[in-house]
Structure formats: C-alpha cells, structure tokens
Amino acid sequence: MSEAKSLPRSISVTILAGTDRERVVQVEKLPLGKAATLGLAFKRIGEKFADLRDDERLKGLLAGEDFDKLPLDQAALRVLEFLPEIIEVAVDLVIDILIAGTDVTREEAEQLGLDEATMLLAAILEVNNLNAIQENLKNVMERLGLTSAKVPAPANAVKLKSGSKR
Predict the structure, then answer these.
(1) Less crowded by CB within 10 Å, the N or C end of the chain?
(2) Is 59 within 8 Å of 53 (Cβ atoms)?
(3) Is 12 helix (H, G, I), strand (E, B) or coil?
(4) Backbone phi, then psi, for 82, in 5-degree steps?
(5) What digits encode the pLDDT tens for the residues 37-82?
(6) Closest-CA residue to 124 (of 105, 106, 101)
(7) Are 22 and 16 within 8 A, CB to CB?
C-alpha cells in the first residue's frame, strides 16, 4: 500500500438546503472521459473572458485615460454597466463546470445559491486535484518537447537580426 498522501475520492455537499429538492451531492474523482469534459469546461473560461475583453465598449472604458484615476466607487459604478454581460458569462461557465464535475442537473445548478455553487466548485477542485493535473501535464508537454518555447518557428517566418526594429 502506498504511503503517499491521497486526496479524498469523494466529498459530500448538501445543495438546495431547506427546500423540498434538498439533497446531498457526492462529488467524486472523475474518470478520464468526464475529466476531459471538465477540462474543456474550464478552458472555456479563458475563451469567454477573452470575448469580454474584445467588447469595444469595455475596451473603451478600461483604456480611458481617466479610468484608473477614478475613485473606486465611481470606477465600480462604471464597470457595473457591464454587469449583465459579466454575470451571463460567469453563470454559464459555472453551470457547465458543475454539470461536468458532478451529477447535478442544469435545472438544479440554475437553482443553487452562490454558497452552494462555490462549495461544489471547491469540492470538484479538491477531489480531482486539478493543480497537480495541470503541473503533471505541463511536465509531460515539456518532456515531449511540446512547450511553446520549444515549438519551431514556421518555415516562412521572418528572422530579425539583432537590433532590427522591423
């Protein structure tokens, strides 16, 4: 038997407490197929927030010379104009992650309180040890020579001489 410290294989989280739909969700370590789905759900976070960064109105707000000089309360009010878009992106992503990482249905996920959703997210991260998985995959990619630093430049890439400003 291994002496290595093992993470729990399952964590119990009560959802919809105090309602007739209250139940305990067993957040379990995911098999490979479901883990891939969970990974894709997490990958969408960056893609969705990139879409927000590309929003011309938001770019204009953040790039404004005076935005970083505004008092915090005024800056927050200006950002609140984008709250519907931010919440829409965040809620959809959280629901997708909860569905991929648990047996919670979309209907249940839409009814969760913020505290319940964050407890489930924390359980998913802990049970599946996503930090270790990310580090292991990074190490594997490096050993296979697939890191961005080792990816060869395309054959038609322009090589600049040292000191060139092209």
Answers:
(1) N
(2) yes
(3) strand
(4) -100, 5
(5) 888 888 887 787 777 777 787 777 767 767 777 787 777 787 787 7
(6) 101
(7) yes
